[in-house]
Amino acid sequence: MATLLGADITPEEKQQLAPVGYSIEGEHSATCVLVDQDVRHIAVNDPDVEILPLKDALTRYDWVQDLMFKLINPTENDHVAQAAESRHAPVGHFIRVRKGAKVRLPVQVFTLLETPQGRQFHHNITVIEEGAEVEMISGSAVPPSVHAGHHLSISETYLREGATCRSVSIEHWGPAMEVHSYARTHVGTNARVIESNIQVSPVKHHYSQSRTVIEDGGVSNDQSVIFAPAGTGRVMESEIHLKGVNARSESIARMVTGGGTITNRTTLVGEGRDTKGFLGCNGLKLSDEGEILSVPALRARSAQAQLSHEASIGMIDQAKLSYLMASGMSEDAARDLIVQGFLNLDAQQLPEAIRVEVSRTIAAANSGAL
Amino acid sequence: MTTPLLDIRDLHVEADGSPVIHGVNLSIPIGETHVLFGPNGSGKSSLLATIMGLAPYRVTSGEIWFKGQRIDALPVDKRAQMGLGMSFQRPPALEGVTVEAFTAAIGSSALLESEASALDFNGFAERDVNAGFSGGEIKRWEILKLLLKRPDLSLFDEPESGVDLEHIAAVGKAIDRLLGADTPADPQRTALVITHTGFILDYIHADVGHLMVDGRIVGSADPRTLFSHIKAHGYSMPPVTANVSQTI
Ligand SMILES: Nc1ncnc2c1ncn2[C@@H]1O[C@H](COP(=O)(O)OP(=O)(O)O)[C@@H](O)[C@H]1O
Ligand SMILES: [Mg+2]
Q: Which positions in chain A touch B153 (Cβ < 8 Å)?
């Protein structure tokens, strides 16, 4: 009973998407794949989930236009302004989970950049309606032949009152690519968002900016697993606003440089009464190459905001390495185990294919870096 | 005479520039268990760590031979791969590295469940190695770790200190089993054990005791005789037997 839109994706494309989470469509409530500047494939198996190309959603529902550029200021910066002023119809997906739905199977959403030196520019809107619950997997990938190109995305996500969304996103871009992403999330009254972000494969420059606003009783939990091999630069800027009474958040970033640079600026703003938030930023430096700059900031606007942070950056402890090697592990194997332990992949509840891919990517970059 | 499994010749060691071992000679034949006694700070842990190849211990002169090969210049993983293993006195906490992941990394996943139950260590698979373990749990894990690997020569640095009375027998028996009590046909397993309390002597068959003072082995004797003497008179050699070879 799947509703299909657009063409199917090829076996090669499926293979490229598998390491970033793609699996059997029949085991998902919906699947959506964007290829270059096309919404190539949409398959929906659950009537409570609706996925449309954004340009179709804009004409089908007159309220969708009001959700666009609502969470992000169209003059935010040059990238966003260009998108806002573009004469072309927007390319991206519109996802809606209907009111009260407890969606049993996850929704999977992917982006592929297939053209070398391609330019990709997406605007995605997601609405989880009142009381709905859903799990999402999103992944981005390029075929091995694509090294360079530019991906730019804007996403606006709305969790209505009492909605819950668990999401895992994993990105695997080309090593010479530029990526800019702007994510905005509105966590409504008593809504919950639980998010894991995985960025471990090589990319020339990745700038990601996010802003989450949490209303009364809302909760946001996010964990980021960040790895920068040599030649990779990542900049993350995020803001979490505890706006409503009793809004809560926990944001944990684990960052490892194997020679690349990572800048992470996170600001937690306590605005509402009885809000509570925590930022944890831990960095691990594998060699003298590369850099980690970690800037956790707390801003309390309410006298009843309880905000805290923990930040650390260290090297791999020689005593830990020796301890593992004393049980017969090689130095590479011991390093891997420590790095993977530091990134704490088990805690992310990742799909097995993603976990294996992340381990493999880190192990490969790790032994290459030494 | 057959070659000893471990042979240490006139070993001098320093740690971060301070001399800690001053000319140790020690031979352990295959299948024997030797016990090392000595006051705090006499260099017992330093000696074990040097045999294993751990930082910051640096051999300044002398030689360490294992299985007929000189190992004092080998990295720690090579020594472990040759069949050396150590139960640490104060191991580092490995946050994020679970008992399960560690066991998988040494290729022993199939053994974990059965070996763990003997040490009352079931339910620890998801715990991080040595992180948030009690003193006794650390010791039990350190023994379990060796049981998962069954080294030919096991080095134990105070395996029973901090273990509660409820578990002391389990730890003692596990060490005995590790040393081959369950496989009488294979009397090959060899050990060097540091003990402070002497409890361990009730559970294992120890062949020789050595007394270490100020970075030197000052004498060797029957381990029980030596331990009784130490309990009564402090860290000195019993008068009659200065050399173990005269007693056995
Ligand atoms: N890393 C180190 N740097 C300097 N001195 C050390 C170091 N490790 C051990 N020592 C010194 O070596 C001596 C022996 O210590 P240790 O081997 O731990 O003794 P034991 O195990 O017999 O109690 C002590 O005086 C101790 O302070
Ligand atoms: Mg000691």
A: none
Distance, CA A50 to ligand 1 centroid (Å)? Answer: 68
| A150 contacts: CB under 8 Å, gap ≥ 6 | A118, A119, A120, A177, A178, A179, A180
Q: Report the nearest-CA residue for atom 1 of ligand 1.
A: B15
Residue pair B108/B116 in contact by the 8 Å Cβ criterion: no
Q: Name the residue with tokens 């905005």.
A: A184
Is the same domain home to A240 and A366? no
- In this structure, the answer to whether residues A286 and A153 fall within a common structural domain is yes
CATH code at B6-91+151-233: 3.40.50.300
Ligand in closest contact with the CA of B89: 2
Q: What is the pLDDT along chain B (248 residues), one digit of tens a residue?
A: 578 999 999 999 999 999 999 999 999 999 999 999 999 999 999 999 999 999 999 999 999 999 999 999 999 999 999 999 999 999 999 999 999 999 999 999 999 999 999 888 989 999 999 999 998 899 999 999 999 999 999 999 999 888 888 889 889 999 998 998 666 666 678 999 999 889 999 999 999 999 999 999 999 999 999 999 999 999 999 986 545 544 44
Ligand 1 pocket by Cβ (under 6 Å): B 15-16, 18, 20, 38, 40-46, 56
End-to-end CA distance of chain B: 16
Q: How far is A205 from chain B (nearest CA, A)?
A: 29
- Residue A362 sits in which domain range? 317-348+357-370
Distance from CA of B36 to the nearest CA of A (A): 21
Q: Cα separation of B164 and B246, whole Å?
A: 37
Residues of chain B found within 8 Å of residue A340, distances taken between Cβ atoms: 96-97, 101
Residues A308, A195, single domain; the answer is yes
Q: The whole model's pTM is what?
A: 0.84
Measured at the alpha carbon of residue B172, what is the angle toward residues B171 and B173, in degrees to the nearest 5? 95
User: In this structure, which residue's CA is closest to atom 7 in ligand 1?
Assistant: B15
